[in-house]
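Wed. Picked up where I left off yesterday with Mn2+/Fe2+ NRAMP family transporter. The coffee machine is broken again, so keeping this brief.
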Amino acid sequence: MSVERETEKKTISIAKKGSSNIGVLAGAVFLMATSAIGPGFLTQTTVFTQQLAASFGFVILVSIILDIGAQANIWRIIAVSEKRAQDIANDVLPGLGYMLAGLILIGGLAFNIGNIGGAGLGINVLFGLSPKTGAVISAVVAIAIFLVREAGKMMDRFTQWLGIVMIGLTLYVVWTAKPPLGEAAVKTFVPENIDLLAIVTLVGGTVGGYITFAGGHRLLDAGIKGKDSLRQVTQSSISAIGVASLMRLLLFLAALGVVAQGLTLDEANPPASVFRLAAGEVGYKFFGIVMWAAAITSVVGSAYTSMSFIRTFHPTLEKYHRLLIVLFIVISTFVFVFVGRPVKTMIFVGALNGLVLPISLGVMLVAAYKRTIVGDYKHPLWMTVFGGVVVAVMAYMGIYTIVHQIPQLFR
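Structure written out below (tokens, as returned):
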């Protein structure tokens, strides 16, 4: 009888652990995806759709392939090494982790200023409060998440529900916009023109900078690591790209439907005009919800991930990492109130984040072949080749963009 009870207890324990893992895996997926889906994401997608029309579908397709190649490699290496990215980089070359952390912090702060501004704009659309007041209110909401005892679970649920809300509302706007689906499908594979700036910006805005590490570090914090978890980790990394890409695709189709009707998007706020032109005042209110949800989840993801890059450098930083997250949000809010969030700056930072990616991914690929980091783990050759191609392509396109195309934005 005691043996049966013991067996029953083990079965229940395994079931609870499996259920818990599913929640954490879904949380990591949505944390990464909603970190990518921020104000810059919304702005970039609508601006490039207006410029490239249906051919923007090809840009999205290429960016998805590059995103998967980058993220699947990075998440697996973090999991098998059981270390955060900055510690892996320091093991590859002493001091490299500090440099990587510095780059992530700069990019994360720049994006978070825009995220806070986007949240303020969402509040403005919904309730008529000033964007600065809305930004402060949103910052308080984000800070509250990290002050609760089980901040990790709260963060997981928060990003999941708001991610679902964003996708649902944008799907409605696609339906009202009635985009030319046939043309979009054809030009996704046979584009009329190819824009390197758009590709670099999309990849940089999806897996560049801190974003691709959001889910990987979240899984590590939740104890999902080691070779036994690689299948789950790989599936989650691809699923996260899928969620972010679904939102990108829906927003592209909504904007395409508006542009195809000959309507002009408002340069001051391109994504807002898409929702308003497609679905009237109801659509505009939907935009307020989507913008706030996209921005506030990105605030959470940016703050959490950026601080995860420095918390291992000293025991004091580890002890007070929640306080550091709060401080990061406070600084971002303070800067927004006095500086603002210009559209061109968001595109520029997205392109710069595309340069961070080849550096961080290159470091991860080197680490994958160091036994002192990954033990007896054998990294799949095809993933190394895939990742190497992403590093080379993003390095070339990133440098080309910075030298030749970015200056044109500010003329």
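Quick read: DSSP finds 17 helices and no strands in the chain.
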